[in-house]
Amino acid sequence: MAKTNYVRLQKMLADCGVASRRKSEELIRQGSVKVNGVVASIGDKVNPYKDKVMVNGRRVTASAKPKLRYIMLNKPRGYVTTMSDEKGRKCVAELVSDIPERVYPVGRLDRDSEGMLLFTNDGEFANTVMHPKKDIYKIYRVTVRPVVTDEMIAEFENGMMLDGRKTAPAEVRVISRQEGRVVLEILLREGRNRQIRRMCELLGLEVARLRRTAIGQVKLGMLKKGDWRDLTAEEVKKLTSDPNPSRHVV
Q: In the annotation, is 110 catalytic?
């Protein structure tokens, strides 16, 4: 049989819409994936059309030409960024349940955050958007309390120590100031877990609201909370061809 019929298992799972390639690797490491009845290992290759691939007891099948979808969701607060949740919490899968293709989140937003979240069933696209080497920036509108000083902004922009490693320089702009309340626009070039909230905590700031407004050159715009739409071909191109030109927060 020709070698071209075989692909890495994590790529096949991503292409079939099970999860992103990175998440698929986690499922393999956890022993959740079997190929022809045998627990799979990282590095395994499969023939998507002949091998029997099971994830948590469910068969995964590859279609000849799956329809690729690229979705933008305006995630509301209170939803976890998973397709299912063992604790019974509301998850983003409920908000895209009317999409016939099996899409999954590209990256994540924590439960208390809101705004732009991408979904796809295209493993290559997901890998491009999430890979650290691609350095795709993300922009957030953040409301904090009580006050923000120039020194605090400088710490954000110069980088802070999290988990023993300095954060990449951020870009920060003050949108508005009111008594005991400041609205910031923050551009990050990395995506550590709860990064903005943890940086604010180190500075003694309380995050009252955190909303992602853009990923790279693609903006959330006026999309209503809880609604989704397909990305345009131009938006997909912006995220995959020249994702991170030199720029400042505007």
A: yes
